[in-house]
Amino acid sequence: xxxxxxxxxxxxxxxxxxxxxxxxxxxxxxxxxxxxxxxxxxxxxxxxxxxxxxxxxxxxxxxxxxxxxxxxxxxxxxxxxxxxxxxxxxxxxxxxxxxxxxxxxxxxxxxxxxxxxxxxxxxxxxxxxxxxxxxxxxxxxxxxxxxxxxxxxxxxxxxxxxxxxxxxxxxxxxxxxxxxxxxxxxxxxxxxxxxxxxxx
Length: 200
Hints:
The structure is a single chain. By secondary structure, the chain is α/β, with parallel strands linked by helices. Helices cover 56% and strands 13% of the residues. The chain has nine helices and five strands, in the order βαβααααββαααβα. The two termini are 12 Å apart.
């Protein structure tokens, strides 16, 4: 079983690519954003640590962490962001490594994928068998974000400015998929890469 990280800038089409892989290959796919939500559910260690850090007023009526209150607290005290990430990122990593071990023990999965924009920054290069960079031309990414998410140019520029450069992604990844063209072309690149992996 191969452990593959999927990363790239916003709007590059990582979700579309993982949907294709999920339908075609025997794999498990985890999105770091979804796992981050799981590890701060009531009853988890992450939840308890966040409440301790942010205060009980950050708990909504339904018992969940109130995202708006947390965002307001971080805005008022920016140093909290690093502390919140210091709780969530290790919890996500622990969750994923547990699932990876379970998948390896079951022996039914050929590929184990983890997707996140911050995989490189969070130290996953040391964990994965290979890291994939999903690339698309910047203007294509901007058009996708305007069309599918309704983002303004200002918001898009702000998000992109906080992410790694194309040069940094390419330097740290084992393989780049160009998702600027047709889905057919992108899928061909994926299939060729995975066929080589299985032959190796």
